[in-house]
Design brief:
Layout (H helix, E strand, L loop, with lengths): L2 H12 L8 H8 L2 E5 L6 E5 L5 E6 L5 H18 L5 E4 L13 H14 L2 H9 L5 H11 L3 H11 L4 E7 L2 E7 L6 E2 L11 H6 L9 E4 L4 E2 L8 E9 L4 E7 L37
Length: about 290
């Protein structure tokens, strides 16, 4: 089953066609028990009985409504997609909303379902098209859909024509990243430590970055055949102090990663034709 298709079918079944979409309300319509209780090391649990009826429990200690909504939608996704394969799903914070390749396929499917359920393309596409990249606009969209900044950013990347990427950093390392379809630069995951020449690194050390895009040397984050040591990319880093993460938005405003049909610029730096220069730690500020 395709997660996005199943999410749209569910919205049609319950007659929802406007934002915000609240999982608790969907559960009420479908007679799915929804509760919020303290959970240790988990954000959400789905229990499925012999009649394929579900009970969803969301961790009451989650302080952000956007996070609670995505967790509830994630568990509804398990019920719609995986009810025949298990009687229980226990979901820690690390898997809900995360696109890390370490996640199990069923968790990635539940995340895709949740994103489509809360931010359906038939509503969200126009909103994305009318908002340029930037955390200020992501926050506006997240308020409309009552979703977390992280979930909203990932959905934005899925739908936008802009060349941008999200890099999730924690413990001074890149944890995982997600790119828009037009972001043609290579993010090197072999060197996972965040460069000390970036606002993201400073945010990981507890300092407050600018609330705007800043120009940094592109090779602090990315590589590409068309880059040189003077190439710059825009970075806007958002500390998530409650989770110890920094969400870094990269914006290739100058089209450094534009790929022509006959271009091989999407090669990785491991290819023989690649010339890789060490990063230069230049930092300047550009207001968005």
């Amino acid at each position: 089953m395709d997660p996005s298709t199943e999410a749209i079918k569910l919205l049609e079944e319950v007659g929802i066609d406007s934002l915000p979409i609240i999982p608790r309300d969907i559960c009420s319509q479908l007679h799915i028990e929804y509760v919020e209780n303290p959970l240790k090391d988990l954000d959400g649990i789905l229990l499925i009985d012999n009649d394929l009826q579900g009970m969803i429990c969301v961790n009451s200690s989650i302080t952000k409504n956007g996070r609670k909504n995505f967790t509830g939608a994630h568990e509804i996704g398990h019920l719609c997609l995986d009810a025949l394969g298990s009687t229980m799903f226990s979901c820690p914070r690390s898997v809900i909303g995360s696109n890390s390749a370490k996640n199990l396929p069923e968790e990635l499917r539940a995340n895709e379902f949740a994103a489509e359920l809360l931010m359906p393309k038939f509503i969200y596409q126009d909103l994305v098209d009318n908002h340029e990249p930037g955390w200020d606009n992501i926050k506006k969209l997240s308020e409309m859909s009552q979703t977390s900044d992280l979930a909203t950013m990932i959905r934005y990347l899925n739908l936008t024509e802009e060349s941008c990427a999200l890099v999730v950093c924690e413990n001074d390392k890149i944890a995982w990243y997600r790119k828009s379809k037009n972001f043609g630069l290579f993010i090197d995951m072999d060197s996972r430590f965040v460069s000390s020449g970036t606002p993201s690194f400073m945010a990981l050390q507890g300092e407050s970055p600018e609330n705007s895009f800043e120009s940094v040397n592109a090779d602090n984050w990315v590589s590409g055949k068309q880059l040189n040591k003077y190439s710059e990319i825009l970075e806007w880093s958002l500390p998530m102090n409650h989770y110890g993460q920094v969400l870094t938005l990269l914006y290739d405003e100058d089209g450094l990663g534009d790929i022509e049909d006959d271009d091989d610029s999407c090669l990785s730096p491991k290819d023989d034709v690649w010339v890789w220069e060490p990063p230069t730690f230049h930092k300047s500020k550009r207001k968005g």
